[in-house]
Amino acid sequence: xTLLITGANGMLAxxxxxxxxxxxxxxxTKEELDVTDEKAIRDVLEKERPRVxxxxxxxxxxxxxxxxxxxxxxxxxxxPGLLARECRRINARVVHISTDxxxxxxxxxxxxxxxxxxxxxxxxxxxxxxxxxxxxxxDNFVIIRTSWLxxxxxxxxxxxxxxxxxxxxxxxxxxxxxxxxxYTVDLARAIVTLLEAPAGIYNFxxxxxxxxxxxxxxxxxxxxxxxxxxxxxxxxxVLSGELNLKAKRPxxxxxxxxxxxxxxxxxIPHWLEGLExxxxxxxxxxxxxxxxR
Length: 293
What we know:
The chain is of the alpha/beta class. It has a domain at about 1-155 and about 180-205 and about 250-270: Rossmann fold (3-Layer(aba) Sandwich). It is built from ten helices and twelve strands. The chain has helices at about 10-15, 40-50, 65, 70-90, 120-135, 155-165, 185-195, 210-225, 260-265, 270-290; strands spanning about 1-5, 25-30, 50-55, 95-100, 140-145, 150, 170-175, 180, 180-185, 200-205, 210, 235-240. The strands form four sheets. It has a six-stranded parallel sheet. The model has no long low-confidence stretch (mean pLDDT about 95).
């Protein structure tokens, strides 16, 4: 099977590629393929003729989207529609990554794929419209909604927390936003299991529930157990409103993953397990970089 990956220099794609060794894979960074350029998409797909296109390209700055609405909407909403239309023309499947932020957070139980989306910020709106654009242009799609994604490159919460914990004695982290941290390696594995699944929307995140405060606390505790020298002495829980963020966030965005389990039969690791693996890999990466110096 021939696969084509957009956004290949992003955080998710980097962890996806090792799972695709048995496939014929073509990767395109944002510099090599502008997913907002209809002609460029058509030319690449006509040349490569993939059976599946995995769209890892996205605008992911939630607060930035409030200021850069045109840019965010172009990448997150219009581009998926362009990709879907061209994929339909060559009879290729679209696999697209979406977000828990399509929901408003008012439901007291985990969100299913059938729950009504109602985003509370522009980022969520742009991602929801991207889903709708795909569904408007093709029936051959898999949309995967995920949450609180972190990995080994780019902006990610654990790396930010560890950096700040090494510099400050006190950290302020919100406790009134609840979801599930998701490790890119685990999402990458899930993407591969869904490549030939029945068309539709699937939720995937790691198991368990956490606030951002819980996430930060466990990052620091695990780092201490690994012997990392940190300056931080206290993590202070705060309300979202105290941080004066531009974009509103859903207070509860846990995803129900029953549909994924039914179709794949796969085990889903708990978020704490994923975090432990992330930290060990980061420590090993730092050791390797140190040895090269």
